[in-house]
Design a protein that fits this description.
The protein is an alpha/beta fold. The protein has one domain: LigB-like (Protocatechuate 4,5-dioxygenase, Chain B, 3-Layer(aba) Sandwich). Helix content is about 30%, strand content about 20%. The chain contains 9 helices and 10 strands. The strands form 3 sheets. The protein has a 6-stranded mixed beta sheet with strand order 5-2-6-1-10-7, sandwiched between helices. A two-stranded parallel ribbon has the order 3-4.
Length: about 260
């Protein structure tokens, strides 16, 4: 069975432990999807020069944030890794060479979502890093090389946010900025139209782009599931909500009917 592919707007790390509409949607989604053999996550929170893939059999839980309650730092998501899958990814990706990292753990872009989807932590998880110095077209081409994994029981998950501007975020005022809503809606329209070419060139998506994507790391994971979309597959959305300057919009492609 060909696995679907997914982009998740992960947002606030507190989504990992606070019951809300977002993690309920992640939990319910996992119940509807085929159980994967493993998860490959491309997260906004592992930026590297060149490409790396986690190769630990027991990746640690990385708490890559600050200023949150102790309960969040107490979370340990003990999903196993899968070194053989890491090697398989390195085989599939021809350019550039992928370095296997035996020490890297799982960052919150991965575990804050997966703890809702697979709370038993019994599905192996591997992460592929983001070389954010490369353009969108590089990531799109790279993602297409991962296509065989869909037939091997691997759920490929991009984790970021279509709109992500922490500088303008305000916890006390969740009212969305109009520009954030416009950018989010424009991206959704282009996803539905399969206009992947323009989505790769995200800096040219209009005047809101500089505010919506001030840095590329949260946007680039979107390109991975888009690149893996097959001609007969449709895209659907969930968690379609903008909170101030962060879009939680998520994309599911290739889900069984």
């Amino acid at each position: 069975m060909k696995m679907p592919v997914l982009f998740v707007g992960h947002g606030n790390p507190m989504n990992a432990i606070e019951p809300n509409e977002f993690n309920r949607a992640w939990r319910d989604l996992a119940r509807r999807l085929p159980l994967p053999r493993a998860v490959l996550c491309i997260s906004a929170h592992w930026e590297t020069r060149g490409l790396q893939v986690t190769a630990s059999a027991a990746p640690e839980t990385i708490h890559d944030f600050y200023g949150f309650p102790p309960a969040l730092f107490d979370v340990q998501y003990r999903a196993p890794g899968e070194p053989r899958l890491a090697s398989r990814i390195a085989e599939l990706v021809s350019i550039p060479e992928v370095r296997l990292d035996p020490d890297r753990g799982l960052d919150h872009g991965a575990w804050s979502v997966l703890i809702a989807m697979y709370p038993a932590a019994d599905v192996p998880v591997v992460q592929l890093s983001l070389d954010t110095g490369r353009p969108g077209s590089f990531h799109y081409t790279l993602a297409r090389q991962l296509a065989p994994l869909r037939d091997e029981g691997v759920l490929i998950v991009g984790s970021g946010n279509i709109v992500h501007n922490l500088r303008l975020f305000d916890f006390d005022d969740p009212e969305p900025f109009p520009w954030a809503q416009r950018f989010d809606a424009m991206v959704r329209d282009r996803v539905l139209a399969r206009d992947h070419e323009s989505l790769m060139d995200y800096g040219a998506l209009g005047p809101e782009a500089r505010l919506a994507v001030p840095t590329p790391e949260h946007y680039l994971p979107l390109l991975y599931p888009l690149a893996l979309q097959e001609p007969a597959e449709s895209a659907g959305f969930f968690n379609e909500r903008v909170i101030k300057s962060i879009a939680m919009t998520s994309v599911l492609i290739g889900a069984p009917s």
